[in-house]
Amino acid sequence: MSLKKIAEMTGASVSTVSRVLNNRDYNCASEELKDRIWKAAEEIRYIPNESARNLKKGKSAGSPMSVWNLAVILERFSSLDDDPFFRELYRSVEQEAFACGCTVSQVRSLDAGSADGYLILGRCRPETLRKLKSLSKNIVSISRNPTQFEVDEIICDGRAAAVCAVEYLIRKGFRRIGYIGDCSYEDRYVGYCDTMIRNNLPMDYANIIPTDQTSRSGCEAMKKLLKQKEHPVEAVFCANDATAIGALQGWREHREHHAAVPSNRAESSVSGSYPPTHIKITQAMPALISIDDIREAAEVTPPLTTVHVPYEDMGKTAVKVLLDRMKKGHAEHVRVEFPSRLVIRESC
Fold first, then answer.
1. Full-model pTM
2. In angstroms, rounded to a whole number, what is the distance separating the alpha carbons of residues 177 and 290?
3. For the chain, first and last CA: distance in Å?
4. Which residues, in sequence order, are CB contacts of 24 under 8 Å at separation 6+?
5. How many Å apart are CA 287 and CA 306, to the nearest integer?
6. What is the rounded distance in angstroms from the CA atom of residue 306 to the CA atom of residue 301?
């Protein structure tokens, strides 16, 4: 009945809905349709398999059954659509939770209701973390910035990923390297600064543009960088792929705007002024590198060189660690760290 309901809500066939929700390896022809199916499943609190209905919360066989609800905390952004990395990470969490017989909900305010366990996507404010810890011990953070073992956490070190990215640019021969991204308590910015200083490279603060790490702000930041007349950047390190995709758009808009500008030729003493002509101006795109390796990174033009963050494995592992915590499988806070790796494409 639930599969049929989701099919009606999304316009997909029942068989497609079943494959998307119950087969982790199924590649849906349309990513947009896949997202609609998952959103509909979340909306009706769908539980995909029969074993999920028999999930117990510490009760003996034959006792009334119940399903664990996992809440995902979204604090850094108002919507998953603002950051494709967290959107894809959330889908991985959701898929693993459903496979384990849990429901998942998005929470932007801790006053929105209680849950059996909480997963934090990205960095959250200290006051939010304190409040969350007062509500529950069942908390797992998924982030690029490790904490001081305040909660269980699944990380891929953002500082190490930034060092990897900037060192690759340096090996390619670039010296004037700009930065677009968050500059406040952000490990990726720290990694950028440390690498530039360690290699005795100039840090021109006019080429460091703070943003909220969205495509929109990345676009505006790139256009701002391209207006720099003194010491223009040769390469740009973006804190995430969403920013880099926006930066690519910013470069295109800048190039189109300056593709042809009017220029009056010198007046002739014989025949007066010549009519205006147009001078074609071209500006090479700075080399561009980022972090995450979301699906769109390989699809844009040029494809993005980026540092791969294994968000699918991180999401699945986070759910497993959280369920182990809820089942009293461990007491001390644990940290699972995944490595990052460079993915070389054409943007450099």
1. 0.79
2. 12
3. 51
4. 95, 99
5. 11
6. 14
